[in-house]
Design a protein that fits this description.
Order of helices and strands: HEEHHHEEEEEE
Largest sheet: 6 strands, antiparallel
Structural class: alpha+beta
Strand order of the largest sheet: 3-8-4-5-6-7
Strand content: 25-35%
């Protein structure tokens, strides 16, 4: 891992931690005010300089229950590539409903930070157990080391 990559990963984690306890609110993106899991990722990775901030447009809060289109993964895969083992600062994306529709930032797997509706805020969690009602399929993505 290069010094630049190490610094970027640390910047992602430091920025993510500044969002802790921000209330969960669908489609919001105001630190300390409200954020959902999609906007949390956009705001953190943009603040860390890894992506340009973008607006994903309108999305219903339950779209993953009624559609097969991988909308969330399409956003993720525009900027990051799949990896087998996540490192600090990488993304974990879980399947809820019919599609992959919930993302978190890996602090030190399985410790994650995410905007989680059930917890009603940005919170630390366990990506393997404890946070979700049932085991869920998870994919990992990274901004580093790709093509």
């Amino acid at each position: 891992m290069t010094a630049t990559e190490k610094d970027q990963r640390a910047a992602v984690i430091a920025e993510a931690r500044t969002w802790l306890r921000t209330e969960y609110h669908h489609q919001a993106h105001v630190k300390g005010g409200g954020v959902d899991c999609a906007w949390f990722l956009i705001e953190v990775y943009a603040a860390a300089g890894l992506i340009e901030r973008f607006d994903p447009g309108y999305y219903p809060s339950d779209w993953m229950m009624h559609r097969d289109e991988e909308r969330y993964l399409a956003w993720v895969e525009k900027y990051a590539h799949r990896v087998d083992a996540p490192q600090p600062g990488d993304l974990a994306v879980w399947k809820f409903g019919r599609t992959f529709s919930h993302g978190a930032i890996v602090l030190d797997w399985p410790t994650i930070i995410h905007a989680y509706r059930r917890e009603r805020c940005v919170t630390l969690g366990d990506g393997v157990k404890g946070d979700f009602e049932a085991p869920r399929e998870v994919l990992f993505y990274s901004f580093w080391g790709g093509e």
